[in-house]
Amino acid sequence: MPRLELVTGDITTERVDAIVNAANSGLLGGGGVDGAIHRAGGPAILEECRALRATTLPDGLPTGEAVATGAGRLSAKWVIHAVGPVWPGLGRLADERRALLRSAYRRSLEVARDLGAASVAFPAISAGIYGWPADDAAVVALTTSAEAEQAPERVRFVLFSARMHDTFADAAERLGLDVVVLGDRDPR
Ligand code: AR6
């Protein structure tokens, strides 16, 4: 099981080997953390995404999948673009889509591991513009990472607000998972 870490902050400044982007299937940028990563990382990331669309991913990246590019000006070596599902509202569809959210985490961890990353940072995938309820998003993020067989040694959740941080911390406690809470500025 990887070491799980929680921190409040802006994921674009994290000093980890790989940063996960909560992208969309088009891979050509967007709002939220996606916009922040492309702004901070510069045009090289978008160029690589365009190249993927022109070659191996003409129809875009399916929901629940992940693909890596370089990280441009970011201190990370790679950005792993993962596509989470849109929250469908409570009901039958929620279970199906939850499997896709699990898959987005699992595939990101596998891609990170295949790249040789020792550390990876995640935002709360789907919990912003895609509307996933924060507590459920935290449970999926934590359990999928804790259970992952293919993962870097360190998995860090970088939460943009104190409230989301508390949601992740509470979920971890309820689930009986050991997580290391880092200070706002991670000394690494
Ligand atoms: N660092 C860490 N977390 C952040 C940052 C940041 N700089 N900025 C936002 N968050 P979202 P989604 C948090 O909306 O729900 C885009 O348009 C945010 O507060 O970025 O998966 C894509 O192109 C929230 O908790 O991603 C897609 O179209 C979490 O990151 C769509 O949004 C995820 O919010 C994906 O929506």
Q: Could you characterize what this model shows?
A:
The chain has about 190 residues and is an alpha/beta fold. It has five helices and seven strands, in the order E-E-H-H-E-E-H-E-H-E-H-E. The chain has one domain: Leucine Aminopeptidase, subunit E, domain 1 (3-Layer(aba) Sandwich), CATH 3.40.220.10. The chain has a seven-stranded mixed sheet with strand order 3-4-2-5-6-1-7, sandwiched between helices. Helix 3 packs across helix 4 and helix 4 packs across helix 5. The chain is globular, with a radius of gyration of 15 Å. The model has no long low-confidence stretch (mean pLDDT about 95). The structure holds ligand AR6. Ligand AR6 binds next to strand 2 and helix 1.
Brief synopsis:
39% of the residues lie in helices and 19% in strands. It has helices spanning 32-41, 43-54, 92-115, 134-147, 162-175, and strands at residues 3-8, 18-23, 66-70, 78-83, 119-122, 154-159, 179-181.
Which overall shape is indicated by the principal axes computed on the Cα atoms? Answer: globular
Strand content: 15-25%
The structural domain count equals 1
Described by its quaternary structure, the protein is single chain
Report low-confidence residues grouped into runs of 5 or more: none
Query: What structural class results from the helix and strand content?
Result: alpha/beta
What is the CATH architecture assignment? 3-Layer(aba) Sandwich
* CATH uppermost class: Alpha Beta
Instruction: Summarize the biggest pleated sheet.
Output: 7 strands, mixed
Order of helices and strands: EEHHEEHEHEHE
Mean pLDDT: 96
Count of alpha and pi helical runs: 5
Number of strands: 7
Rg on CA atoms, Å? 15 Å
How far apart the termini lie comes to: 19 Å
Strand order within the widest beta sheet: 3-4-2-5-6-1-7
Q: What is the third-level CATH name, the topology?
A: Leucine Aminopeptidase, subunit E, domain 1
Give helix % range. 25-40%
CATH superfamily: Leucine Aminopeptidase, subunit E, domain 1
